[in-house]
Amino acid sequence: MLLKKCPRCGAYSLRDICPECGVKTVSAHPPKFSLLDKYGKWRQKAKLTMHHIKHSEVIS
Ligand SMILES: [Zn+2]
Fold this sequence. Notes:
Oligomer: single chain
Largest sheet: 3 strands, antiparallel
Order of helices and strands: EEEH
Shape: rod-shaped
Number of domains: 1
Number of helices: 1
CATH class: Mainly Beta
CATH topology: Rubrerythrin, domain 2
Number of strands: 3
Bound molecules: zinc ion
Distance between the termini: 53 Å
């Protein structure tokens, strides 16, 4: 199932046409999503790095 979004009223819909304003909806997968994904990956990486630093502190 692909979530669609109305570019006019911003309502999310699963239809190709917004039931509110009759405007053709667009795919609700803006670059926002990939940015969040990137951020999540970065956080994961930072966590790993922090863990690594802690680990090496213990060793030295
Ligand atoms: Zn609409």
